[in-house]
Fold this sequence. Notes:
Layout: H1 13-19, E1 26-30, E2 33-49, E3 74-79, E4 86-95, E5 98-108, E6 137-148, E7 152-160, H2 165-169, E8 205-212, E9 219-226, E10 245-257, E11 260-277, E12 280-297, E13 300-310, E14 330-342, E15 345-356, H3 361-366, E16 371-384, E17 389-402, E18 407-420
Antiparallel strand pairs: 1-2, 2-3, 2-4, 2-18, 4-5, 5-6, 6-7, 7-8, 8-9, 9-10, 10-11, 11-12, 12-13, 13-14, 14-15, 15-16, 16-17, 17-18
Amino acid sequence: MNRFSRIIPVAGVMSLLCASGAAHAFDMVNGDWKFSFNGNINVHYIYSDCESASSAKAITTVGGACTGSASGSSVSNVGNGLLPAAMSFGVATTQGGYDITAHFGLYPGISTNDGGSPNVQQGSPAGTNVALGTTGLDVRQVYMTFGNKDMGTFTLGRNFGLFGFDAIINDMTLPGVGVAGSFSTATPSNTSLGSIGFGYIYTDTLAQMNYTTPDYAGFNATLGIFDPINSLTAPGPAAPKSAPGVHGKLTYTYAFDKGTKLYLSSAFLDQKQKYLIGATPYSYNGFGIDALAKLDIDAFEAVAYYYRGSGLGTTGLFFLSDDGLGNKRNSSGYLLQGSYTINKVKLGVNYGVSRLGYANNADQANVPNLLKSNSKVTAGVYYSLTKNLTLLSEISDVDTKAHNGDSNRSISGNVGAFLSF
């Protein structure tokens, strides 16, 4: 199951922030319309020291500590990190008292990848990391918004989900690498894992329709529906869903003074999962809830995040979420992070763990090596050479444990640069 670590589609979240309020690299006004463009390019050298082939255990997991082969246990790559490169285009206007925007987010990588998706490896038995290859382009954001400060805002289209979003957007490894993921293999995809599967589930990009309230004394609420997605690890084909998924989010921001600010948020996700094994239909309801607290005190920042799911899985939405017979597995996890900035240098460390439980005793008997926990600690140094260019280095210690007591451990390190514009 470690192969699934190659297909986690880590989104260009930094560009979403740029598109939603930060200064753009390029703005142009034509009549009532304002056009904007921004993005990033990031490149890293990534080294992984994996569990040796002689000691590696077979653990049913998604992501986790990397394992070596008969040829060795160390792997070197040059590629993107947690974020792919990004190009974000936006248009905005005000008509009849309504603020209207549209956004397109395009995400190319730099790894050699001929697959239809930049994070799904396809091609010959040799893989796609071969001569004459090319990289891929991923379109993850296509959405519009309309509303105003009095009525609130509607968001319609493909955009990042609500559950788990604040975890990844506050992950210090966002401009870096964190856990190497598929960069510990011979056929790397365009993104690493960061802390995905090690403290939070990936928020993903979903076709959705949401409403966000106006600001009420620091409070904002969002509620919406999304196109229900299928389980990638289901034992049979997916069946059509009779209802959309539902998600929501509540946030609160309070500034104590100029240098001290508190941010709190909680989000949920609920969706029914259906599939078929032969002629037998199975279904279960997947639900998750999370909470995040972030405190900024001058140069110090602390982040604490927790999630709990039932039938939601681990690492990605609905990965290993049931026993294959519609019996739900519970999951949980947390991420703790602290950072301190001295002039142009930010020093940070985070620790995350994601846990997965059995559905029942039969599940335990059938899959004794099911993932029990994925945990990691990452330490990083981030130096702002200019206001747009950051040089960085990280090291991550990764531990994967199974319910039967087996475990694998790996260490990865990276050095690179992140340019935003």
